[in-house]
Amino acid sequence: MTGVETFILQLTRAQMRRGLAPAIAMELSDRQDVLKIASERGIAVYDLPGRQAFLSILPQKVATALLRTRRIRFLYNLLKENDVLHVQAVGLSCLDGFLAAALAGKPVIVTHHGTLSWFAAQRDRLADVTFWIEKKIASTIVMPYKAALAELNSEGVSAARSSVIPFCVDEQLFASASMPSTEDNFRLALVARMVSGKGHIELLNALSKLAPRHPKLRAMFIGDGPTRGQIEDKIDRLGLREIVECKGKVDHRAVPALVRSAQVIVLPTYEPGEMYPLCLLEGMALGLPAIGTRWSGIPDIIDDGVSGIIVEPRDEGGLEKAIEHFITDTGFLTRASKAASARVRSRFTASIVADSYTDLYREAMSSRVRVTSHHIRIRPPRKLS
């Protein structure tokens, strides 16, 4: 799963606790983890029509038109039994959803999981049309931090119809302080897919400098991906095999127990698509102070010098100093641990974020009632989705 699916699962779980009836519609190809976790939590998941084999024999434009028609019909029928469409957009996407919502007469809320500048290279005429429709029909368009929202506003989204709501961590899954280690080691946890730009290599270089001075230092990498071979080779070349443990792919529900064994959560990312990394929030919720880069929304997550330390992207020297500060200053480690946990509880829990979205849903439904009440009889809302 990516951060998008993780966020959706944590948000919908909190929405159910708040009495809402969320449902997820997405292509389930290669996303069976989402279906499994959602089903265990009683969350309905619908498989969006995909590009089936028979579509591949048709001309591309015909196949695309047919697929889009099927998806619009599918979402339209789904929306007839629900009250709100909440789009989780990566880039400028979900044209099918916007059209289905317009046909069904249902309000739309959009949460973006990428900045417009990151998506700029992929923008084409269809993306521009999709964004134009989004601006026309969405009740509110959400970004997780202010700088991303300002970029959205510069593209013509009015301040009155946009909002900042951060991503969240499920406080019931990621709760309580970090468990005291049974071993006399100082462990860092890096939870991220192994892809270029996440900072694994930079962290390994910093560890190679720190290890001779701090023999108790350890690191745990949780995640898998296309650069794992490169990372494993780097571990061997630097002689860090006894220090760094690669856990590989881990079920998200098992992550809290692993991360609790660490003292600090770290993500030295400079990945272009990075926006608001949940792994930092999850570690902080467990009482781990964080080390992150001055990148995208990370400065909004970490209160620099209070709940963690922010370093510059690709600054291996700064990363080395930040880690050493936590190792040598136990007082700062203790204070930052308490501050990290308090910061998540005050701003980033799934319950807080779910309540913020519920307010948007109700406002959107109320506005829809005011607009249409002179045309049709309005019944009390059945449920929010």
UniProtKB/TrEMBL annotation:
Occurrences of domain Glycosyltransferase subfamily 4-like N-terminal (ranges): 2-172
Keyword Transferase: yes
Top enzyme category: transferase
Gene Ontology MF terms: glycosyltransferase activity
Domain Glycosyl transferase family: 181-341
Classification via InterPro entries: Glyco_trans_1, Glyco_trans_4-like_N, Glycosyltransferase_grp1
The keyword NAD is assigned to this record: no
Domain of life (superkingdom): Bacteria
UniProt KW keywords: Glycosyltransferase, Transferase
Enzyme Commission no: 2.4.-.-
CDD domains: GT4_PimA-like (cd03801)
Protein name, as recorded: Glycosyltransferase family 4 protein
